[in-house]
C-alpha cells in the first residue's frame, strides 16, 4: 500500500447542533476501538484486504463519522466504513 501524507484542515462548527454530532462520532469511534479496530489493524472489506488508517471525524455529508467511523485503505483507495462492513483479516 502507498504511504501518503494527510493534510489537516482547521475547521469550525457551523451550528449548535454540531456538538450533538460530535458526541455521536466520538461514541462511534470509541465503540470501534473497544471492538479492536485500532489504527494499523489488517481488515477485510468482503474479500478485499485493507488496513485501518484512521477514524472518520466528519459530522456532515452522506458518510458521517457517526455511521462510518473507520477509514480503511485498500488497493482501490481509501473508504469510509461502518463496523458492519469490515472484518478482521
Poorly predicted ranges: none
Main pleated-sheet profile: 5 strands, antiparallel
The coarse overall form would be globular
SSE topology string:
HEEEEE
* Radius of gyration over C-alpha positions, nearest whole angstrom: 13 Å
Distance between the termini: 15 Å
Give the rounded overall mean pLDDT.
85
Strand order across the largest sheet: 4-3-2-1-5
How would you describe the overall organization of this protein?
With 89 residues, the chain is of the alpha+beta class. Helices cover 19% and strands 27% of the residues. The protein has one helix and five strands. It has one helix at residues 18-34, and strands at residues 42-45, 48-55, 70-74, 77-81, 87-88. A five-stranded antiparallel sheet has the order 4-3-2-1-5, with no helix packed on it. Strand 1 and strand 2 form a beta hairpin. The longest helix has 17 residues, at 18-34. The protein is globular. The two termini are 15 Å apart. The mean pLDDT is 85.
Give a quick summary of the entry.
The chain is an alpha+beta fold and 89 residues long. The chain has one helix spanning 18-34, and strands spanning 42-45, 48-55, 70-74, 77-81, 87-88.
